[in-house]
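User: Sequence in, structure out. Go.
Assistant: Echoing your sequence, followed by the structure tokens.
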Amino acid sequence: MQRLALVTLIPTLVTATLLVAMLAPQQLMTLRGMAQNTAEAIATQAASVTAVPLRDMQRRELVRIAESIGDLPHVARVQIRAADGEILADSLGRSGSDHSESLTVVRDVVDTERPGQPVLGSVVVDVSLRDAIAMQQASLRHALVALALSLVLAAIIAWQAARWISAPLRRLVNAVHQLGRGDRHVEVEVTDQTEIGELQRGFNSAAMALFDVQRGMEREIEHATVELARKNAALEAASVAKARFLAAASHDLRQPLYALTLFSSALAEDERDPVRLDRIAHIQECVEALDHLFSELLDLSRLETGAMQIEIAEFPLDHVFQEVSRNFRMIAEQHGLRLIMRATNLWVRSDRTMLSRILNNLVSNALRYTSHGGVLVVARRRGDGTVRVDVWDTGSGIAAEHQVRVFDEFYRVECHSNEHDVGRRRGLGLGLATVQRLAELLDTRVLLKSKPGHGSVFSFHLPEIPPQQLPAHHGPESSLDVSGMRVLVIDDEPAILSGIRYLLTSWGCEVAVAEDRVQALQATEAWNLPPDIVISDLRLRDGESGLDVLAALDAHYQIDGHPPFSRLLITGETRSDRLREIMAARIPVLYKPVSPEQLREALMAAWNASRAEA
């Protein structure tokens, strides 16, 4: 609008200015010309009137003539002079004697009655220009006032014209803003048939097309949202079904595996024949391979069902390194590899069990895919208050296309040429997925760097704490001799009861078995004293819980309010609600299948803990 008004106003301003600039000098010249003519006329008339008195030298008459001429308008002064220049009459007119604003005219006086005679004298008439200049200034003021009024009027007309011209554009701008705000349908009025009208019609067409596209997209988004919700529900149902399947498989399939573990271990206890021992060793290797596969499934099931609870503690990292070294040093030596756990004095705050499982999986995976060289585990202090743990290997490495998926469930990189124990310990592709899940529970993430043919490095960070004083250990470590211990075993699987009875008996234990609460109470009647330890499955037949059986045995003995016996739960259950019951009861728990070494250590740990509390 401002630009349109300025464009409209400039021609008027220029025209008026030029007119004033041209007419003012012209008017001044006209006024001067009029004054010049007036002065010449007065001088000519004065010269004609003064001829006779000047010839006769009638001074009084000359003075009277000068005064009468001075009374005329615009006359400033009149002088009558003789031929020799003597001033015979001098009269000031009514217009004053300011010669700076006057025009002087001189006329010779001749005797018209005597032609040919010399000039009698002269008449000098001064005509004042002051009135003419005043008239000129008044005219200029009037012109300027008229110019100002015309400019104001032109500005008003220009502004209104600009508003009228720009109104369609403003409406288009407002309509565009409405579109930007997401209004449903926007339309502007078509005001004329000019280019502006074409623009308005084009905008209306574009707005209508955009509205149709928006409605189509909304319908598509709504349909996609419904479809996504349906697929999400299907995925959630599949995830729940998978978790339930894994939980059922972890319990039901591990039951016979646990029994097989017990029987194979019991067979090896008293066997001396090398041939049979070799066959038993092959059976145990197959059992270990099955145990490895089921352990992967169990860990995944426990992670997905939320059964794994974090227990944050502060401990020296080197203790975990030593534990991992004891687990895998012999395996590394069997394959001609070096396992280096770099000693460290750093302390961390984390869950020790989860951290051990992460390092065990990473070291096991590194040894499996390394044919020469070895594995290095090292910890470094970072400047951000964390400790970085690196697991290096000199194995076959992982190609770039596999690196983004190695942490996915059931994803394996096929590399049989460098893989040890392919037939016996071939995993399900859950090891690294479990590692990443455990790391996320510890509020960290495992990172991978690898180059095919040059090995890999897995890294993660842990919170660092200042080193602390370790509690002193007094006395020798307790032995794992369980001979003479009275053990009550409760399980609803006869094969498991038979196998564990055979194994514990071979260790010198006095064993009683039961399948439910009634049989458990009946079995204790053969002993005068409570059993030293009760081993129970969590889930028994007919929905009965091992915790209920332990509570019934407690009520049966009722000795001074103290627990009358040690207790240990062995289960393949992964449901979070069941596991929370165990955690609330503060009873040690092992997950099937349990190796004989784990069972022996757990027996002694539970028995020693019970004696310490008593």
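User: And one key feature?
Assistant: The CA atoms of residues 231 and 237 lie 10 Å apart.
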